[in-house]
Amino acid sequence: MTTVTEIGAAKRWSMLGLGVFAQSSSAVLVHGTAFLLPALTQRGMSLSTAGLLVAMPTIGLVCTLIAWGWIVDHVGEHRVLVAGPGLMLVAGVAAATVTNYVALGALLFLGGVGAASTNGASGRVIVGWFPPEQRGLAMGIRQTAQPLGVAIGALTIPAVAAAHGFSTAVLVPAVMAGAAAIGCLFGIVDPPRPESSGATGRPANPYRGDSTLWRIHGVSILLVIPQATIWTFGLLWLHRDVGLSLGAAGALVTGAQILGAAGRIGAGMWSDRVGSRLRPLRTVAIAAVISMSALAVAAWAHWWWAAIPILIAASVITVADNGLAFTAVAEIAGPYWSGRGLGIQNTGQNLASAVIAPAFGALITVSGFPITYALAAVMALAAVPLVPRVSR
Predict the structure, then answer these.
(1) Quick one: which of 221, 183, 155 has its CA closest to 14?
(2) Which positions ≥6 away from 14 have C-beta within 8 Å?
(3) 260 C-beta neighbours (distance < 10 Å), count
(4) b/e map 329-340, b = 16+ CB within 10 Å
(5) Inter-residue contact 264 to 148 (CB < 8 Å)
(6) What is the mean pLDDT of each run of 10 residues along the chain (392 residues)?
(7) What's the DSSP call for residue 36?
(8) What angle do CA 249, 56, 281 make, to 5 degrees?
């Protein structure tokens, strides 16, 4: 069996690149559909209804993350990273051919099912092939896939929708997913797994007798709320309240997401240097509370000169926790449970994200953006004492 030390560095980093690309295509579908909100609301659809439609990929993802994790634990990463993006391609192409919103919602749901495959599988490839002293950096790079996917969605989907219509814009993630499936088919190798040392020949359940993993999952659910709030409604807020054009707002969101990607890499390097994933996680949670509180105040006072820089800072801070928590879960759960562990991790996060679009859309309609940003800050505050002090 090939080991971590026997595989070449070039091959290791190429698999990381493929994982980032596959995860980015998933992020464009799951999070990029939020950038269709202006087009839908301009057609007369209520914000809460439009929010439900664009949340369908997230719902499909949430429903199948743990199932994909189980599949990864049993059949390996290579097959999953080919099958999932392939399903996204099929669903996306089909979605481009329909005009009925119910059918479109069903196909977006199916695309989300395919997108769920890349979350745990790409993370396990990194944990399996990279040594611990490089794992934080590698996982930080892998976690840039999500903000990069959002940035690609912000840059392309509104423009494609404006020029060619809603359905054609769905082809953006579909084409990316097809390319990812081909790349993973030829470029991904399943990492080795050590022999189980459990008394019964099966690995012990890491969730029994220890609350560490459950607490990390809870922290991530709470911290994804401010993250999803900015991703889902940032473009709309900049256009409707601040007064920026859709093009300028999209460019600003794109730039903020690129900075967020760099922030994830920095957080991963930081965790490698201090030898802990959880201490940096606690600091990031505190910073999220401060940035979202400041954004609420600036939005309430109409201090646009301050609100825009704060939004950029919050966009970077609120995504920095993902790689830290993701790596911690994979390391603690171990090679025979990390697929399911990462599935549980992402299920909680994406379930919260799916609720944000319709629930916070209704809240914005009733109370406005400042109250919504303040509520997101309260959710981040609740996460701070929940971060475990030590991990096993």
Answers:
(1) 183
(2) 187
(3) 28
(4) bbbbbbbbbbbb
(5) no
(6) 62 90 90 76 73 83 87 87 94 85 86 90 84 84 80 83 77 91 92 62 74 91 91 84 82 83 86 87 94 92 88 90 86 79 83 82 87 93 88 46
(7) G
(8) 65
In 3-state terms, what secondary structure has residue 219?
A: helix
Where do the H-state alpha helices sit in the chain?
Answer: 9-32, 37-42, 47-54, 56-75, 77-95, 101-115, 117-129, 132-143, 145-164, 166-169, 171-187, 212-237, 246-274, 278-301, 304-317, 321-333, 338-367, 369-383
- Residue 253 has which token pair? 């969101």
Instruction: Identify residue 376 by its one-letter amino acid code.
Output: A
Nearest alpha-carbon partner for 392 in 333, 317, 322: 333
- pLDDT value of position 296: 93
Decide if 173 contacts 61 (C-beta within 8 A).
no
- Owner of token pair 């979202």: 292
pTM for this prediction: 0.74
Task: Tell the residue number behind the tokens 């429903």, with chain if given.
Answer: 63
Whether the CB-CB separation of 332 and 212 falls below 8 Å is answered with: yes
